[in-house]
Specification:
The protein is mostly helical.
């Protein structure tokens, strides 16, 4: 019974994340400022979901690397990106994916 509840909550979380992410991407299309993009209410709602959303962010990071880097930093209060990787989105995403593996969020 507990696993069904947990699975149900995971599905609800994924649906909420997907809906918010879609809304956010649609609303910020054409914006160039990641600072402004991250101020959007849907983005802030995703961040407010906390650590539970980290696996979803990391999963989506593979397709949309630039979108979720600030959210991951804000939620985790960490930054695995090395100075020489800054500005290189693909390398920054890889640093976060490696972090996710090391911390058990992805396998």
């Amino acid at each position: 019974m507990i696993s069904n509840t947990k699975e149900h909550n995971s599905q609800e979380l994924k649906e909420e994340f997907t809906n918010l992410a879609s809304q956010w991407i649609q609303d910020v299309e054409g914006m160039s400022s990641t600072v402004e993009m991250s101020k959007h209410p849907a983005y802030q709602k995703i961040v407010s979901m906390g650590k539970a959303v980290i696996p979803l962010l990391l999963e989506d990071l593979r397709q949309n690397p630039i979108y979720w880097l600030p959210a991951l930093r804000q939620i985790t209060q960490e930054n695995p990106v090395q100075p020489e990787q800054r500005g290189k989105v693909k390398q920054m995403a890889e640093a976060w994916l490696n972090w996710g593996k090391q911390h058990g969020y992805i396998f």
